[in-house]
Specification:
41% strand, mainly beta, 179 residues, 1 helix, six-stranded antiparallel β-sheet
Length: 179
């Protein structure tokens, strides 16, 4: 009977080990919910740029948003320039986004015709041709706090071959936010 007893106890232990005895366990949970949204940086020109000619016969004008509805393009015009004449423009550059930024400006390859010497000078500094290797700046801009922008360009000098000559240029102002 001793062996049977041991076999019965062993069988009972095996059944309990496999099936388990109804011990109660406690459980608890903790949660983390998250959501994140990036801010944005958006530049926009003021609505009414001012222009001033250096001589009474020089015509200067400026338009905001001519090529876009967002107002990110300021187009300036100067005509009837003689050597030594220029047009001066003033406007504000606004950050209508939610993040502060750092702005830099660079003159893209200008196109000019005729035997003339042109100049372009803005808030960021004198731009030259060929364009500088690195952008000019930085100028900080904060949301809701416009920065004043000024631009002067014109005809430094030219000879008879400069009559009816033209200059086309683009200054790209780039803003960055974050590191």
């Amino acid at each position: 009977m001793g062996n049977r007893w041991l076999v019965a106890v062993a069988a009972l232990v095996a059944v309990v080990a496999v099936g388990g005895i109804g011990f109660a366990t406690f459980t608890a949970n903790a949660y983390v919910n998250g959501n994140a949204q990036a801010g944005y940086l958006q530049l926009q020109w003021g609505a009414e740029p001012a222009s001033t000619p250096s001589a009474s016969y020089v015509a200067c004008s400026a338009v905001v948003g001519q090529t876009t509805t967002a107002g990110d393009t300021l187009t300036v015009y100067a005509s009837n320039l003689a050597p030594g004449d220029s047009c001066n423009f003033a406007d504000s550059l606004n950050d209508v986004g939610t993040l502060p930024g750092t702005t830099y400006a660079q003159l893209q390859v200008p196109t000019f015709y005729g035997d003339c010497t042109w100049f372009v000078y803005d808030t960021y500094g004198a731009h030259s041709y060929p364009p500088l290797e690195s952008p000019l700046g930085p100028i900080s801009i904060a949301p809701g706090s416009p920065i004043a922008y000024s631009l002067t360009y014109g005809l430094s000098s030219g000879n008879a071959g400069c009559q009816n000559a033209a200059l086309t240029f683009q200054i790209v102002i780039t803003a960055t936010a974050g590191s």
